[in-house]
Design goal:
This protein is an alpha/beta fold. It has 7 helices and 8 strands, in the order H-H-E-E-E-H-E-H-E-E-H-E-H-H-E. The chain has helices at residues 3-11, 14-17, 75-84, 99-103, 134-139, 172-185, 190-201; strands at 24-27, 39-41, 60-66, 86-97, 118-120, 131-133, 144-152, 216-223.
Amino acid sequence: MKESSKTITIRGFAPLQQFLKGRVIDIGAGNDLICPSAEGFDVSQGDANYITKFRPAGAYDAVCSSHCLEHMFNADDALVEWWALVKPGGYLLLTVPDEDLYEQGFFPSRFNSDHKETFRFRKADSWSPVSHDVESMVSRLPGARIISAELQSDNYDFSLQFKFGDRIGSSRLLTRVYLKLEKKLGYDRPVVKALRRSLFRKGVPIDQTHGNVLAQIQVIAQKMGDLPLA
């Protein structure tokens, strides 16, 4: 399941609906737009690291991005670019993977080699050499008022969470066998669950987000500078 669809399936659309009015752009969504009226922006439209070269500043009532910021060359600079698209009074809806729940102590990422930076939630320190406190990143944006910030771990099995410093097993063959079985039978089949737990006991990290699991941080902020008169 794709990330926006999965989040909405698990959490419902109602909590986000109030922020998705007017002109909406969804950065990095592919064909999984956060709402039907959203304008998609992906690699075929341009480089999201420099999005103001391709889309006008201050033109959007809502700028959304789910699991895209971690692919940018410089997350701070890209976020400033994305924020520039938000009109006064508009909203930024940002979702990124949580480094402890997704990366699980590994960087470069074991599960997605294109991840360039990692994100933490309300932690002073991190095991990751490229970690950002995403709530602080958003709060530093000019005129930003945080509406909500939360760690979303729905359906996450913490008993299968690898932790930084845990001893890792060496059998990548078992991992490949598991992934083929998971793809064929589905994440929630009993035999797949049993194999997943067996691999974990052997020191093999498990990407739980292949299933109906959230392992992410979501921050929603409003741009308060130069609000239009009522």
